Amino acid sequence: DEYTTLECRVNATGDIQSLSKFIYDAEKDPLAVKVDSIEISSRDNNGQQLSLVLQVSGLVLNQAQ
User: Which of 14, 12, 4 lies closest to 55 in space, CA to CA?
Assistant: First the structure.
């Protein structure tokens, strides 16, 4: 095989500003990853504290032998 798939899951909490900055930074990073799924839910009655579940995958190229 020429590559391996790496899958990662991120669980994070915070307000809308911190989570949106995290997602923006992940999208702008030069490391190419694919967002497989994203889920944002409220952790309080006012929607001030949010929970984020993000699943990403990427390719790891294997060294030629």
Answer: 12
